[in-house]
Amino acid sequence: MTMAPLPGAELVQKPLQLYRYLLRCCRQLPEENIRQHYRHAIRQSFKVHEDEDSPERIQQIIKRAVEDADWVMNKYKKQK
Questions:
Q1: Global pTM?
Q2: What are the domain boundaries of the chain?
Q3: Burial class (CB in 10 A: 0-12, 13-18, 19+), 54
Q4: How many other C-beta atoms are found inside a 10 Å radius of the C-beta of residue 18?
């Protein structure tokens, strides 16, 4: 079992909570250009999904985003 990139991942239930959580994850990344890349990707993803209204689909998106953040954080943690 992998650990969440930041404490509180299990508390993310709403899109705005996810957005804030992912931006906090970005602050942990090692270089500014990497942080900018992921901040941009997060914003773009939120724009793409902003009209999503299915609660089940929103929960799927949240689950996948937290898993992806975990992968990214572990990737850069190993490079240090």
A1: 0.83
A2: 15-78
A3: exposed
A4: 22
